[in-house]
Design brief:
Strand content: 5-15%
CATH architecture of the largest domain: 3-Layer(aba) Sandwich
CATH topology of the largest domain: Rossmann fold
Helix content: 40-55%
CATH class of the largest domain: Alpha Beta
Number of helices: 16
Radius of gyration: 21 Å
Shape: globular
Structural class: alpha/beta
Distance between the termini: 25 Å
Largest sheet: 7 strands, parallel
């Protein structure tokens, strides 16, 4: 089988697709990655064919934009008009040129618009991959959005109306002009309600998270949730020697990471240093050494550009992060307490789910400073229920095989409609 992977985003968005690709490759299938240019080296390291979409310079320019993390302005950055105009035909042509009927399946993130177009135009079997529950609207178990929190007691018709209104007024206008312009060149009719309805494959929607993390009875009936796919390059990037030495040199540190795409996190890392000082704790800052890292760090705090979470988190006292789904999954698997500082995208919803699981405290980004972080960490360490909750979810994850379940569903997709049985 030929497997085309089409994620859109940063490392946290691409890594689960790499994990899926490796699982399918181990079963004898050929894998290709369609992604931004910086991920070419990662694809080639694993023997995947690589097809670039946007350039390295375009990728870096996008993640360096401070509006990327703004709850209202981030959509404008993601759906940049010029990038959409360029990306749509490039992504579609990569898929079209490698599609062999009866041999090829396509696995795409919800922002991979060319993949959904290719499914319509070419008939290529498609699974839409959601990494977090927030991408699947529900009027029953409604996610928390960066700019809107619909209370559980609100009537379902009101929630559906507000969601449709948000699509019509906020999301569709940023996507629909370029998408429908491109569809017209292929003889396809225009579409609307793009992210809420159209983007989901009618064949298979895979939520790469377990059912206990997210489930709703009014999700598309073709949705299945095999569990978290945890991949962090630990196979190709072992723990740096200086990080290993630091971990061995004292008590477990508090680990801080605010996302691989973060370039403007100076005040967050200042807060991290202040909280470590106030609590007399060691700290590990995982982020690129740019101006966002405070200068003259004390010996009790180490900065590293990268370290695999699967190797670091089990040796941490706590993890402080932005609520990205990859970091969330790794921290749950490590059984470590968490403080979450959500900013945008799926982060507020993931943070709320972690709070409800009993493993985290949440500090909103506007309130995140040394004092608030100190209070949250102190509460986390003092709560006797947190270690029990962390150990319970860790054990539950240990007993599952999400990669095997996901690969089974994808292999069934090759013949057309998969046999949809609930997993996870």
């Amino acid at each position: 089988m030929r497997v085309l992977l089409a994620p859109v985003g940063s490392h946290g968005d691409v890594h689960p697709f790499i994990g899926l690709g490796l699982g399918l490759q181990a079963r004898g299938h050929r894998v290709a990655l369609i992604a931004s240019e910086p991920f070419g080296e990662l694809a080639e390291r694993h023997g995947f064919e690589f097809m670039p979409t946007i350039t390295r310079a375009e990728y870096e320019r996008t993640i360096a934009n401070p509006d990327l993390w703004h709850p209202r302005r981030s959509a404008r950055v993601i759906f940049d008009d010029a990038l959409l105009r360029k990306y749509l035909p490039i992504g579609y042509e990569h898929i079209r040129s490698r599609y062999v009927a009866g041999e090829t399946v396509l696995l795409a993130g919800p922002l991979s618009l060319p993949a959904r177009v290719a499914h319509e135009k070419l008939g290529i079997p498609l699974a839409t991959i959601h990494l977090a529950p927030v991408g699947l609207f529900s009027a029953v178990a409604t996610p928390i959005y960066p700019t809107l929190h619909m209370s559980a007691w609100w009537p379902a018709p009101l929630k559906r109306f507000l969601f449709a209104l948000g699509e019509r007024l906020l999301l569709d206008p940023k996507i629909r002009p370029r998408l429908n312009e491109f569809r017209a060149t292929l003889g396809l009719p225009p579409v609307r309600r793009i992210l809420g309805r159209w983007i989901h494959s009618p064949q298979l929607v895979l939520g790469l998270f377990p059912e206990w993390f997210g489930h709703a009875p009014d999700w598309p009936t073709q949705t299945r949730t095999p569990g978290f796919i945890r991949y962090d390059q630990a196979d190709g990037k072992p723990l740096p020697a200086e990080v290993e030495a630091f971990l061995n040199a004292g008590d477990p540190p508090v680990v801080f990471s605010f996302g691989s795409a973060m370039r403007t996190g100076r005040r967050y890392f200042d807060a991290a240093v202040a909280a470590c000082h106030a609590l007399d704790r060691r700290g590990l800052l995982l982020a690129k050494r740019t101006e966002q890292i405070p200068p003259d760090l004390p010996p009790s705090i180490l900065q590293a550009d990268y370290a695999p979470f699967s190797a670091v988190f089990p040796r941490a006292a706590a993890v402080v992060h932005h609520g990205g789904i990859g970091t969330t999954a790794q921290a749950l698997a490590a059984g470590v307490p968490q403080v979450v500082m959500p900013m945008s995208f799926d982060q507020p919803d993931n943070a709320d789910r972690l709070r409800k699981l009993g493993v985290a405290r949440v500090v909103p980004a506007p309130e995140f400073d040394g004092a608030s972080l100190t209070v949250a960490l102190r509460e986390l360490f003092a709560d006797p229920g947190v270690p029990t909750a962390c150990a319970g979810w860790k054990e539950r994850m240990r007993g599952s095989d999400p990669l095997g379940a996901a690969c089974d569903l994808i292999e069934e997709l090759r013949g057309g409609e998969p046999t949809l049985s609930r997993v996870g």
